[in-house]
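Hello Y.,

Per our agreement to keep a running log of every chain we model this quarter, I'm adding this entry. I've kept the format consistent with earlier entries: sequence first, then predicted structure.
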Amino acid sequence: MSFVISQKQYLAPTEERIQYEPFIIDDTGFEVEKIDVNFGHPLYTTVADIFYIKSVREYPQILPIVPDGCMSMVFRNHEGEMSGYICGVIDEIRKLEIKPHEKFIFIRFIPGAGYALIDGGANSITNKSVSLKDDIPWGEQMLSVLERETELSERIRLISKQIRVHMRMEQDKYLVRYCTDRIFQSQGNIKVEKLAEETGFTSRHIGKMFDRCVGISPKLYSQIIRMQASMDRIIEDRETLLVDIAVDCGFFDHAHMNRTYRKLLRCSSGEFRKFMFKRLPYDKIENYISI
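Predicted structure for the entry above:
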C-alpha cells in the first residue's frame, strides 16, 4: 500500500482535460450548440462536454440518450419554467421526450467525477435521477441563475462556478482518473488485472471503486467506451466493412460487436449504420429522467 501512496503523482501526473467526447445526436429536428470548455473554465478538468439543445419541430420528439459512462446535470426549460436534475450513469440506451420548442442544457461529467456532487456512491443513482430543486440543497440557486435574462454562456459559467464549489474532494480521485483514462486511451481494451498491476491496487478494490465513483463495473465501462469508438468509426467511415471495424475496435468479431450493440443500444451495428436511431423500439425504452 505504501507504494501506491507514494505514486499519486504517477497515477495523475497532471490535471489535464480528458479528450473523451461522448456521442451527441446530430438530427435536423434539434438545434444543438456546444459550449466551449477552454482552459480556465471552472469545470475544465471535470466535464466531458457542455451543450445546449432545442427542439425546432412543432410536434414532440424523442432524443435517444446513448450510454457513455458519464453522470450528467440536465436543465429543462419548458415555456420559461426551469427544472434541473442530476442523472446517473445508464447501462443501456434511454430516451428523452422533448416537447415542441423545449430547451435543455446538458453538463456531462467525465466518468468518475460527477459522484462528488451527491451523497452516497454513484451506483446509488445508476439509471436514476434526482431533482436539483427537491434533493440538492444548493440546486434551487442554480435554477434561479439560469432563469436570468443574460447570455447563455455567462449563465453556464456562473453555474459552473457553483458546481465547482460543491464538488467534494475524494480520496480515490487520482486512482479513478488514472483507470478511466487508461480505459479510454485503450478504447476499452485493457483488462482490470492490467490496471491492478499498473496501480498496485487489487482488481477487487478497483471494481468497488468503479461502483462507487463511476456507477458501473470497469467491465461495463470498457464495453461502453469500445462501443462509442466503433460508433464513431461507423458514422465516419461508411465504406469499411463492419467486421473490419469490429476487429479494429477490439471486438473478437462482428457477432461480438452486435451482442454489445443489442445489449446497450437495442439494435445491431448494421441497423445502426443504416437507420441510426430511427427504428428503435422506443415504447420499450425507459425515460432518461426518472424520479
